[in-house]
Amino acid sequence: MTISILGAGNVGMALARALLRAGQPVTLGVPEPARYADAVAALGPQARLTGSAAAIDSGGLVILAVPYAAALAIAAERADWQGRVLVDATNPLAPGLSGLSLGTTTSGAEQIAARARGARVVKAFNTTGAENMADSHYAQGAPMMPVAGDDAAARQQVLALATLIGFDAVDMGPLSAARYLEPLAMVWIHLAFKQGQGRQFAFARMSR
Q: Please, what is the average pLDDT of the chain?
């Protein structure tokens, strides 16, 4: 599959590094490519940098690695996403990481899906920090990566992608499960920042 990542911040670059290490070429799309030319060039020849629209055009699977408000705008800009898999890696964070701006009866992912006409929206890569997306290796085992989406084939593609970069990919079923995953991201944020535990931890499943 051809993969584009919209955004070249912490999350976008972390996912790019993980995918490239796994042998998957990526295109990074940003509004001002010149600002990121050196950083993307340092990723190697399998990383390509373009404008946002061109990255969407070239990607069969597009990852939203931008702030939530920007993701909403990007989702609504296209008249037709033409069946692309659109992976929502965002969280609708309130100012100052004080919580979520919506939830319980909807989710950020569902709001993006409502705007992204013709896209197959999948929620993933939102429940842990960029460091874990860049390198998911832990001596104790693979960190969990929940994946939710209404389109089963699209969900399976993203589950495979999460597995490729070292996660224990967990099928959460329909996109409405994002209502649970976005608060789970707040648990990670609360422990990392509010409780001072730092960013070097991840959630994992255990079974007997």
A: 96
Question: Is the model's pTM score more than 0.85?
Answer: yes
Residue 8 CB contacts under 8 Å (≥ 6 apart), including other chains? 16, 28, 30, 36, 39, 40, 49
User: Measuring CA to CA, which residue among 157, 29, 6, 5 is closest to residue 83?
Assistant: 157
pLDDT tens digits, one per residue of 10-28: 999 999 999 999 999 999 9
**Cα dihedral sign, 23-168-93-98:** negative
Q: Does residue 172 contact residue 147 with C-beta atoms inside 8 Å?
A: yes
Q: In the prediction, which pLDDT does 129 show? A: 96
Structure tokens at 155: 């969900």
Nearest to 123 by CA among 70, 174, 87, 160: 87
In angstroms, the CA 69 to CA 125 distance is: 17
> Which contacts (CB < 8 Å, 24+ apart) does range 190-194 have?
192/129, 193/97, 194/97
Instruction: Report pLDDT digits (tens) over 93-145.
Output: 989 888 889 988 999 999 999 999 999 999 999 999 999 999 999 999 999 99
**Residues 82-94 as b or e (16 or more Cβ within 10 Å = b):** eebbbbbbbbbbe
Query: Which strands, in side-by-side order, build the sheet including 47-51?
Result: 47-51, 26-30, 3-6, 61-64, 85-88, 120-123, 144-149, 168-171
C-beta separation of 31 from 51 below 8 A: yes
